[in-house]
Description:
Blueprint: H1 6-58, H2 65-79, E1 85-89, E2 94-97, H3 99-103, E3 118-124, E4 127-138, E5 141-150, H4 152-200, H5 218-267, H6 272-304, E6 312-315, H7 316-333, E7 337-341, E8 348-351, H8 353-369, E9 376-383, E10 387-394, H9 416-421, H10 428-438, E11 442-448, E12 452-460
Parallel strand pairs: 7-9
Antiparallel strand pairs: 1-2, 1-5, 3-4, 4-5, 6-8, 9-10, 10-12, 11-12
Helix pairs in contact: 1-4, 5-6, 6-10, 7-8, 8-10
Amino acid sequence: MTKLSIGMRLTLWYLAIFAGAQLIFGAGMWFVLRHHVYDLVDDGLESQVEDLESFLRAQDKDASLSKLQEEFGETFVLEHSGDYLQVYAGNGEWVYRSAFLQEHPLPPVEPNLVRRASFDDRRLGKRPFRFVTLALHLNGRTYTIQSGVPNKDVVEALSQFRLYLLMFAPLLFLIAAAGGYWLSRRALAPVDSIVQTARAITGTNLDSRLKKLETGDELQRLSDTLNEMLDRIERAFLRITQFTADASHELRTPISLVRTEAELALRRSRDEAEYQESLRHILSESERATSLIEELLALARADSGREMLHMRPVSLQATLRGMVDSWRQVATIRTLQFSDSLGVSESFVLADETALRRVVNILLDNAFKYTPSPGTVKLSLEQKTDKAVVVVEDTGIGIPAEEQSKVFERFYRVDKARSREMGGAGLGLSIAQWIAQQHRGIIAVESEPGKGTIFRLELPLTAAPVRKPMLA
Ligand code: ADP
């Protein structure tokens, strides 16, 4: 079932509430008016009864029924005040009965049942009347009195009022429906414009934004929030396109070098030494391409959240100690000094050991790459109250102050040619930073061009794992 639009639903809700309020108001007004008008009529009937009571009191105590009948006849017939009056004594004998009521008799009432004056509507001779019925105990007799007034005007006025209400209600309802629909359309018009612009936004025009609303209401907040979201999506999209462009560019270089080398080698026949030389070049470019692809894959997995790290308490000393030997060999090949200072007390961090090695390798690899001989690279471990700091220090070319924050960006290289020559694509530090963040740590850089660079990897310490006792 298709759902109604918000505008339509708002209008329908508005109408339902309006109709309910109109019904309550109309019915309430009708009842209040009826109550007041009947009060007036009943007051008139009560004063009639009071007159009648005074009249009965004024009669002689021992007056016979026939005497009373005579008095009533003289007083009420002549004055016309008893046109709709009937009175009978307790034993059921008539004291007075108007000509009209003789013609249209009222059912007699049992006097015991009439404790208080009771009012009711009756139709007699096709005319509406309001009657009061009352039992009076006077001079040892019980009189049952029923006195009425024609009620036509009141009934007509009330039905006229009801008619007006019923006539105007649909009209008001229609006006409210039109007004409600117009209001909701007007209030929701910006939503339509937001929807239209949002529909037109695709990957190729991500720079378009929704029209800025100045309404200061929820819709302005909505369009502002959507625009902020578009900003973020655009930035992420640009990062991805930039990343893809950079990655393709970086991959093209080693692959075209491999191709050129192979083409040159095949152009004419060569001796074995020349072929070996060409193959060595091809191998080294393929290795470069492989490591680049590995780095790209690592970042792609990190971005997609699929890179699973297996965290457990790891001893930093043990991990670093296991790495120093191979770096000592690198230092020898590169004719650089390498020293380590890993301390004596063990510091444990919650880490994925492979990822941890990778960060330190990236930092050491950079230190060796960007330190010309003669120079020194130092690996040390410092322990603070709640964190351990792995420090990689070199006496190399350094990084200018304005570039220091950028070196963690993907594909960023301070000196592109030099870095490429060293085999770097500018991805190492961004991978290192991602790993540090996954370990709730940070990497900070401190450097002075021409003097050297210090990279600090800070990781929160964790408790040492409980070692299971060896079975005897
Ligand atoms: P690359 O693979 O190019 O080394 P990185 O992301 O590891 O990429 O480093 C980014 C850039 O930061 C490098 O190209 C280099 O210019 C600079 N850099 C990193 N480490 C050092 C260092 N120890 N000394 C001088 N420059 C460095």
